[in-house]
Amino acid sequence: MPGTWSSDENDVLVLAYLDLLARELRGERPVKARTIEALQRQVGRSKGSIEFKLANVSAVLHEMHHPWIEGYKPRPNFQKSLRDAVLRHAPDTPSVAEAALALTTAPASVAGAFTWEFTNAPTVEVSAEYAHHRRAAKRDYVAIGEANRSLGLAGELAVVALERDRLTQSGHERLAERVEHVSETRGDGLGFDVLSFTPDGREKWIEVKTTRLGRSWPMFVSRNEVAVSQEQPDRFHLYRVFHWEGPRVGLYDLTGDLDRTCALRPETYWAVPKASA
Fold first, then answer.
1. Separation of alpha carbons 241 and 69, rounded Å
2. Which of 80, 95, 110 is the last residue of a domain?
3. Residue 125 domain flag
4. Are residues 63 and 2 in the same domain?
5. In the chain, which ranges are E strands?
C-alpha cells in the first residue's frame, strides 16, 4: 500500500517500535527482523519503507528527549500524524517508562573492568523546526540523566584515570601526577571537570558528559561551559562518555568552541522578577 501512512498504520508501527525499545532498554537483544516481518504482514509495506519509518519514530523521540532504538538512527522530516502517534503512545507505555527511568536514574557503579572504545563524534540529523519545537512529553530523560550525579561522577573519575594512564604510558609521569579532578577539588563553576595535559605540557580542560545510552544521545551544556569553550578553544575538550557500565565504554572528544562542534538549542534561562513586576 504505497503513499502516505494512515493514522492506524502509524499506531501499529509505533506500538511495535515501543515494544522493541522497552526490551532493548532492559538489556535484552530483541530480533528486529521478526518485528519487521510482522509489520510487513500487518501494514503491507516494504521492509525499506518500514525501516525508514522506524527511523522517523527515533527522530520524534529524539525531539522529546526520550530514549530511542540505537539501530534506528533518527531521520527527521516525518509526518505530523506520526509525531501525534508517538505522543499518544510513548508517554503512557509503562514498560518503556519504567525501563527508561531505571536506566537514567539508577546509581552508577564505580568503574569496573571495561575497555575504552574511542570513536568519532556522530552526526545527528534534526528537523528544521527542532530548535523551536516545544516538546510535549511527561519526562525529559536527558535532564533526568544529567541530574544523576553518581553517573556524572563515575565518568569523571574514569576520565581522570584515563588521562593519568595515557600520560604515564607515554613516559610523562610528572604530568600524570598533575592531572586534577578540579570539579571536586576546586568546585564545579570552572566550566570543566578535569585538568589534564598534552604530552608536550599544554593544558587540557576537559568537561565530561556521561550516559548509559548510546553515542548519539543528547547532552546538556551550560552557558558557562559554552563560554569557556569559546574563550579557551585550544584548551577546551568535551569528552562524551557513553554506554557506561557496558563491557566497552565509548568516548569521543569535541575539541574547541562548542558553538562550532555542536548544534546548540537554548533550554533554560537564569531569571529573577524585575523590579517593575
1. 18
2. 95
3. no
4. yes
5. 115-118, 194-197, 203-210, 236-242, 248-255
Q: How far apart are the C-alpha atoms of 94 and 84, rounded to whole Å?
A: 18
Task: Answer whether 5's CB lies under 8 Å from 85's CB.
Answer: no
CA 257 to chain centre: 19
Q: Is 272 contained in some domain?
A: no
For 16-65, what is each residue's pLDDT tens digit? 999 999 999 998 989 999 999 999 999 999 999 999 999 999 999 998 89
Helix (H), strand (E) at residue 225: helix 223-231
Domain that holds residue 197: 143-261
Do 147 and 53 reside in the same domain of the chain? no
Question: pTM, whole model, 2 decimals?
Answer: 0.90
Please give the single-letter amino acid code of residue 154: A
Count of the separate structural domains present in the chain: 2
DSSP 31: -
For 204-227, b/e burial (b = at least 16 CB within 10 A) is: bbbbbbbbbbbbbbbeebeeebbe
* 227's grid cell: 563560554
Q: Does residue 48 belong to any structural domain of this protein?
A: yes
The pLDDT score that the predictor gives to residue 76 is: 87
**Residue 118 within a domain:** no
Q: Which residues pair with 196 in a beta bridge?
A: 204
Separation of CA 137 from chain center:
17
Domain edge (last residue) among 58, 76, 95: 95
Q: How far apart are CA 172 and CA 200, in angstroms?
A: 9
